[in-house]
Amino acid sequence: MTQKDILILFLVLSAIWTAIWFKVILSIPNIQPEEEVTKNANTLRRRLAFPMIAALVILLTAVFYWSPYPIFREHTIGKPEVTVNVNSFQWGWILDADTLPVHKVVEFNVTSRDVNHGFAIYNSEGRLVAQTQAMPGYVNKLIFKFDEPGEYTIRCLEYCGVSHHVMLATFTVD
Ligand SMILES: [Cu+2]
């Protein structure tokens, strides 16, 4: 299941949910005594509770399963085949590789030697494809598979001082 599949699932569930509400709204007579309104509302809440909880559970399960956490990544995109160590500082990035393979699972071990930075990877069209925090004293794992070759740019997403905006690096995927 890809992000697109999750979006489609979300839209389908939303459409079902909207259809249920339209049916409910159209089935209610315009004028009702107050006790009837309360009784109907309670019945309606009881009936809608189950589908709503079921939809939430389905969506949350899909979202968590496809989230970028390393414990799920092994199942969703596979075990990392390439490891890249990333260190950051005010104001730059040090990567121990400048070329990465396409269609292989890459594990970035991201840290910082001074303050918090945001490690963000943008594709050649300027679109954000993956990101994690770069934190002093921690190594955050970002596991990602590049399906498109090209030149990728790393930018900092956490304001880290006066030269934050020039904190750039690039690598090639081929
Ligand atoms: Cu920054």
Structure notes:
This protein is 37% helix and 31% strand. The chain has 174 residues and is of the alpha+beta class. Helix 1 (3-27) runs antiparallel to helix 2 (34-65). The protein starts with a helix and ends with a strand. It binds copper (II) ion. Residues 117, 156, 158-160, 164, 167 line the site of copper (II) ion (CU).
Put the structure in a nutshell.
This protein has about 170 residues and is of the alpha+beta class. It is built from three helices and nine strands.
Strand order of the largest sheet: 3-9-8-5-6
How is the biggest beta sheet arranged? 5 strands, mixed
CATH class of the largest domain: Mainly Beta
Second rung of CATH, namely the architecture of the largest domain: Sandwich
User: How much helix is in the residues?
Assistant: 25-40%
* Terminal Cα span: 25 Å
The ordered string of helix (H) and strand (E) elements is HHHEEEEEEEEE
Structural class, by secondary structure, is: alpha+beta
Shape: elongated
Task: Predict the CATH topology of the largest domain.
Answer: Immunoglobulin-like
Contiguous runs where pLDDT drops below 50 for at least 5 residues: none
CATH superfamily of the largest domain: Cupredoxins -  blue copper proteins
- Count helical runs: 3
Q: How confident is the prediction overall: mean pLDDT?
A: 91
Query: What compounds sit in this structure?
Result: copper (II) ion
Content of β-strand: 25-35%
Number of domains: 2
